[in-house]
Write a structure and sequence with these properties.
The complex is a heterodimer. By secondary structure, chain A is an all-alpha fold. Chain A is about 60% helix and about 0% strand. Chain A has seven helices and one strand. In chain A, helix 3 crosses helix 7. The longest helix of chain A is centred in the N-terminal third of the chain and has 21 residues. Chain A starts with a helix and ends with a strand. In chain B, strands 1, 2, 3, 4, 5, 9, 10 and 11 form an eight-stranded mixed β-sheet that branches. In chain B, about 40% of the residues are buried. In chain B, a hairpin with a 4-residue loop joins strand 1 and strand 2. Chain B contains six helices and twelve strands. Chain B is globular and about 60 Å long. Chain B is an alpha/beta fold. Chain B has one domain: Collagenase (Catalytic Domain) (3-Layer(aba) Sandwich), CATH 3.40.390.10. Classes of the chains: A mainly alpha, B alpha/beta. At the A-B interface, helix 1, helix 3 and strand 1 of A face strand 3, strand 9 and helix 5 of B. Strand 1 of chain A pairs antiparallel with strand 9 of chain B. Bound molecules: zinc ion. The site of zinc ion has 4 residues of chain B, from helix 4. Zinc ion binds next to helix 4 of chain B.
Chain lengths: ~140, ~260
């Protein structure tokens, strides 16, 4: 988990640096960007809370070690095996089309729209943890 | 022939008492018809303790008693879940329909916890929870601020085995409870200001459990809400003995223990 966090943060910093290099002449943008990168900490407890706030995904996306909920509903472990972009697409765009179709679930849509970028990243970070070692101290 | 066997098996499973880490009975869903479901029933949580220390765990009985009390106290008293999006519950049929519905959910289970000392792997069923007492743990970890720590205990989250250094457990029995709550699905806390929380793990553990953490453990324990309609329930197999073997033998965990006792 820790290693992964570092990798993610490094990733953000590298992306941040590229953007900074491109926008070298705009000093105000640099500051805003730098603050934004530093303020989002990835933590499992935060991701857990975001998942609960969303209406609790785990009642249908059950853990991988137990029988699945329904044939076409991926388990948490299966979701975790996808790359972050694919998970993000599944949650936030199209992929999540079963009972959470926008038309049938305005509440879910509202909950989705209420998430800020950092909450989204923490949610995905939490899901990805189901594919990591699961070892905790 | 096949059908006969099948029938016999079903009969046997009906008469055999349920066993395992989670055994639930008298499960009921109360629907107040204004969007609140309350889940009730009696749930027994059993944790088997295996002493793998070289010198022996002399205070094991009293430590097990304190841990048992704490696990029970932390789980008791009910917990409110965030608003959930699930399927509509029909109290007439005692079943969930396939229509979507939003509910507030209240867990109100009557919990009992039991810690049992075992002496060999043969006393470990596939769906048991286990806490191993070891001599040492070589595993080091880095927190979110980049600082390094030694481990007093180690656990595999979401149903996996837990272990604690016996000497550390003697100093503070809550470390064992902390590790077991990883088994029940709780993550660690590292943020400053959370030092009084049981799941804080940077150099010390506190003792507080929040409503949200309690709800998360309830969620882990009754992971498929549809099982609530069956009246009784026991958890599926985690292949506990094999998981424990893999966990203890994993070099990156760095366990030091008396291998002769692992039998
Ligand atoms: Zn921990």
């Amino acid at each position: 988990m820790v290693l992964y966090t570092i990798k993610r943060n490094l990733g953000s910093i590298i992306i941040g640096c590229c953007l900074l290099a491109c926008n070298n002449s705009h000093h105000t943008n640099e500051k805003v960007l730098a603050v934004k990168i530093d303020s989002c900490q990835l933590s499992l407890s935060f991701g857990d809370a975001v998942m609960a706030k969303m209406g609790e995904c785990r009642y249908c996306h059950l853990r991988g070690d137990v029988p699945r909920f329904e044939e076409n509903v991926p388990t948490l472990t299966e979701l975790a095996a996808m790359d972050s972009l694919k998970i993000s697409n599944f949650i936030f765009i199209g992929g999540h089309s079963g009972m959470y179709k926008e038309s049938s679930s305005p509440l879910f849509k509202r909950k989705l729209d209420s998430l800020d970028d950092c909450e989204k990243r923490n949610l995905i970070h939490f899901i990805k943890d189901y594919k990591r070692s699961q070892i905790a101290n | 022939m096949f059908l006969e066997n099948f029938e016999r098996e079903i009969l046997a499973s009906q008469t055999k008492p349920l066993s395992g880490g989670i055994v639930a009975s008298n499960l009921k869903i109360n629907d107040n018809r204004t969007g609140l479901l309350t889940l009730t029933g009696d749930i027994l949580i059993t944790l088997k303790v295996l002493d793998l220390t070289t010198l022996g765990a002399f205070r094991i009985q009293s430590l097990m008693k304190s841990s048992e009390q704490t696990i029970m106290n932390k789980l008791r008293g009910g917990a409110d879940s965030d608003q959930i999006i699930f399927y509509e519950y029909s109290s007439v049929k005692n079943t969930f329909t396939n229509k979507q519905r939003t509910y507030s959910l209240k867990y109100n289970f009557n919990y009992t916890a039991k810690l049992i000392q075992i002496n060999s792997l043969s006393q470990l069923a596939g769906n048991d929870f286990v806490l191993a007492l070891v001599d040492g743990i070589g595993h080091r970890f880095t927190d979110m601020y980049g600082r390094k720590y030694v481990s007093g205990g180690l656990a595999k989250k979401n149903g996996g085995p837990a272990a604690v250094i016996y000497k550390e457990w003697e100093k503070n029995y809550l470390i064992g409870v902390h590790e077991f709550f990883h088994t029940l699905g709780l993550p660690d806390l590292e943020e400053s200001g959370m030092e009084n929380r049981l799941m804080y793990h940077l150099g010390r553990v506190g003792s507080n459990i929040t409503n949200n953490e309690k709800a998360a453990m309830n969620k882990f324990i009754m992971y498929d809400l549809r099982d609530m309609t069956k009246g009784s329930y026991s958890n599926p197999g985690y292949n506990t003995a094999n998981q424990l073997r893999t966990f203890l033998n994993d070099k990156s965990n760095g366990f030091i223990y008396n291998k002769a006792k692992f039998r």
